[in-house]
Design a protein that fits this description.
Elements (H helix, E strand, L loop, with lengths): L3 H6 L1 H9 L4 E3 L5 E3 L2 H8 L5 H9 L20
Antiparallel strand pairs: 1-2
Length: 78
């Protein structure tokens, strides 16, 4: 974990580690995580809700996603 002051002075090292597959946490209050673009694309850009399942699984909780077929009923206009 990096303090904001250290992160400002060590940005190139933070980026090097993130590119090497080591996510870097910056800040203690409301922290942020720096990951490589490759890791971001692989883990955070799906739009089917799979990230929510992954996050819930990490917390030891189960979650069931609704069916995402095109022909499902539209609950707003039903």
């Amino acid at each position: 974990m990096w303090s904001i002051v250290d992160a400002k002075s060590q940005l190139s090292e933070i980026l090097r580690r993130a590119r090497a597959g080591q996510p870097q946490v910056i800040g203690t209050q409301n922290p942020c995580v720096v990951v490589s673009a490759e890791a971001f694309e692989a883990n955070f850009t799906d739009h089917d809700g799979a990230w929510l399942v992954k996050q819930a699984a990490q917390m030891g909780e189960g979650i069931t996603l609704p069916d995402r077929r095109e022909d499902r009923a539209d609950i707003i206009f039903a």
